[in-house]
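Sequence in, structure out. Go.
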Amino acid sequence: MNFPEGYNSKLSEMLEEATRIWYNEPQKALEISNYVYISSLKSADERNESRALYCMGVCNEMMCNYPKAIHFLSEAIKLATKLNEKKIIADSLNCIGIINDNISNYSSSLRAYLKALKIYEELDLKRNKSIVLSNIGLVYTNIHDYRNALKFYSQALEIAEDEQDEESVLITSINIGLTHFLLGNNSDAMKFLTEALLLAEKRKDDLRKSISLDHMVDVKMSQGHYSEAYFLLEESRSIKVRLNDKKGLVKIYFIFGQINLKEGKVQEALNNTLEALRISEEIGLKKSVFEIHKMLSEIYEKVGDTSKSLHHLKFAYKKEIEYLKEKSEEKARNLATQIEIEQAQKEAEIQRLRNVELANALEEVKALNLSLQELNEEKNEFMSIAVHDLKNPLQNILSSARLLKRQAEVTNTELIDNIISQTDRMFNLIKRLLDHQSIEEGNINIKVSEFDNCSFISEVSNVFSDTASAKNIELICDCREKVRLKTDREILFQIIQNLVSNSLKFSPSGKKVFVRTYSSGEHVMFEVEDEGPGFSEEDKNKVFKKFARLSARPTGGEHSTGLGLSAVKKLCELINADIELESEQYKGATFIIKLPLSA
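Output:
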């Protein structure tokens, strides 16, 4: 498939668009990433494919589809490892760390973050290093190990300041301020939160300005500075109204109510608390609902309305039980999700290891095949040289023996006959080896001619008539139907000749050998049947293999190379013929050749 110029660059631009919108529109970003992924597969653009997998993982994390996110991120890591795209690997590991942190799987979260951190350090990506250090700090905050949290936050902040990365400085300063507050270090908490507030104002980042103000309120409330807290709350409330941050407004009105109650402003406390209740019920904040009902119970108790106080208290406990039940179920779901994620990670790792092992095994097989091919070529070359070199001295021996036999003064003709017989045998062996080598190397040219099957098997029979008579074996030819066929006559002759030779060689004296031919549909059939020892099941499994040693032995002292039936099988393939063996041990054998009527 041809793709337009700049096609892959366009896919890269689409991925950049997905990363710009995934915080606010994760579903749309996912759709874009999925399109790029499919398009990258079509265009074999593995780099964009790995980046698309990473984006799909992040988008699913944003939508809390954690198992899917882990699947895509694991695939991104696998492909990026192949491409040596280390940043994609580290970014994917960072996202895996976030997922595990979200489901309270803190050990797995830390492992992923630390792997990402190592890669960012290798690549000298300081901004990314700052982000992952801050993420590690959050894990320690979540497990209440505030000392370690501060250690990682400080490292993150130092890098962010050196890189003049104001966003990272702002986020990390807020986290440090919160951690100091949890440690009870109010002065240090206010220092970092104030710096974060000023930086947020400079950057016109209202969301993080509001977060900084909320944490500063927590500090002031713990110190009992309610008027200062109230002032900060008013500023945060105006931002949250502008941002339509309803969840944040619930907290604002709830704290307003607490301050009002402490200052004895009961009606104002009631009004603010009821406003908090209205918004929390509207957006479904179940934990806030029962906490607000407890607050309302306290307010009505202050004004002496025992009935309403009891009503809100009962309602609060009912909602708290429902909330705790849901949290328990959520914890169970998180545990199931965690197990599912761990399983997905294990499967991805197993698959990665299998791919590595398979790749190594394939390389070993390739190397072994190459070595075997070289050895086979060397063997064939050696055999060719050896066999050809044997022909000349054997020819000299044979010629000399025949000359001696013709001389009248030679009296020991039996010895000379033995020399001639053994030399003929060696010549036949050499001929077999050379024929087999030619077949193996494909050095046989197919020469198609037209002839009939009946005259053909009659000729074969004539060749072996003397051999059959010498062994007292009756050779019977049976042409049931005369047909014309087109094929390589010499090759077919070698096939039938070889089969008849074997039948005579292995048949005892007084038996019969049948050579039959007939038509069957669009094929002509040739059968060579004997009454010899037949083939065992073990023999039948290796009968067409080279140099096969079978259980039967020639009955007249003949020699067998073990190459005959192997060569027959190869020759059949050359003329598009099929060969079958029907045999039972001690009950003879029938070889059947099925040949198309036309070549």
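Check: Residues 156 and 213 are 22 Å apart (CA to CA). The mean pLDDT is 81.
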